[in-house]
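Replying to the earlier thread about multi-chain prediction with a worked example.

Input:
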Amino acid sequence: MAATTFDSLNPATGEVIESFPRSGAEDVDRAVATARAAWEEWRLVPAPERGNILFRFAELLRSEKPALSDLMTREMGKVKAEAGGDVQEAIDMSYYMGGEGRRLFGHTTPSELRDKFMMSVRMPVGVVGAITPWNFPIAIPAWKLCPALVCGNTVVLKPAEDTPLLAQRFVELLHEAGLPEAVVQIVHGFGEEAGEALVRHPDVPVITFTGSRETGVLVTKAAADQLKHVHLELGGKNAIIVMDDADLDLAVDGIVWSAFGTAGQRCTAASRVIVHRKAYDELQRKLVVRAERMIIGAPWEDATEIGPVINKAAVEKIHSYTEIGKSEGAKLLTGGERVDGAGFYYRPTVFADVEPQMRIAQEEIFGPTTALIPVDSFEDAVRAANSVAYGLSSSIFTRDVNKAFAAMRDLQTGITYVNAGTTGAEVHLPFGGMKQTGNGHREAGQAALDVFTEWKSVYVDYSGKLQRAQIDNQ
Ligand code: NAD
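Result:
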């Protein structure tokens, strides 16, 4: 018989943090029924009041930031400063979406007929099924739940099996902030069990999913029979372009932060660096020095720059790509090995002489590995950058404003940075990717509201007679 619980582990030590229920379809049924019943009342709560709860939630997150960050270093392995940044993103999102309670703007527009009024308004959809990954264990639930709630939906959250305790705290704080308990339900467990049951549940009309491309395809198929609204935020194979006129020290700062921050486990991680051949040797030298100087250690220690990756399977996957890179003929400049001892650590790894079509330049590794690709021109750089299936983030380091603007136009990604790395999104602009990073939706900013609302167009005729659009105004 399958176990009824699963353990959350500390990736830095391999020790068990806590056990959680391994929920299945019946638990999902119960959670959805509760959230569905709560929706009838929650959708009628005035949006400013819903927003006020998010303001209180933001305040609670602020006061709990040190404790949540510390827990994140232990349950997810993110280093201290980055764990604080993850919580801060949730705080920012709660304030932003709290304010949305007094906006949620629709449109009014003149009618073609006399004595007739027209407007469009945003309507909540119902129960939202939110499925989240482990790599932003507080921020991503906030990106999904804050807009969903302020728009008047209720939510069933299925968090990643690697970070259940953080998700549990997140939901407890929402309830402490005054959210009625039934409005947000949490279901722990595995993707193929609790996750799939949520996706298939007939009373869940919206699925918001962040995770890998492969799982995104499964979710889309499972939701297809009921034509659900599906919002996908998937993987990336993000590139930094370094032109020959770039400030190379600044570029190296950007590469180190984007390729090795969070041990490379960000959807926006820079796993490719496309370098103009004139800057190639110098950039390699500088990057290797910096990579080898990085302090690997316990994520809760102040000095640590690289913590563990999430679990044993992740170390194995990352190492398998080192072997793939070598067998493809790329040159391993540094790293390429596990760190001995307890925990799931991998050294910052840099490959040189990578061809754009090699697997290490095409597939998401999700670890501290980056691939240097030499090119001869700006046009070749953009072509290489765009030669992957994903389209999340991109960046260019150049002092040439013409090239910067051409890159902003031509790079096929949902996010482009100029003279900064590939990571660093703020909550009030849309976040998400083109191509196979998603399915055309966006998280964050005003764009997030489109996922969690349906537009309703309303026509009010106060003429006292039947007026026929397209006919009576000829
Ligand atoms: P994952 O796809 O393995 O899991 C994500 C979530 O989906 C987990 O909660 C998991 O339990 C659930 N799941 C798994 N199988 C399922 C199924 N059949 N049905 C329903 N749910 C299922 O991804 P992960 O390893 O947790 O996260 C890493 C991935 O997430 C990377 O590809 C990364 O790029 C991506 N990511 C994307 C963004 C973005 O905004 N674009 C942000 C963060 C992470």
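The pocket of nicotinamide-adenine-dinucleotide is lined by residues 131-136, 158, 160-161, 190-192, 195-196, 199, 210-212, 215, 218-219, 233-236, 267, 364, 366, 392, 433, 437 (CB under 6 Å).

Feel free to reuse this layout for your own posts.
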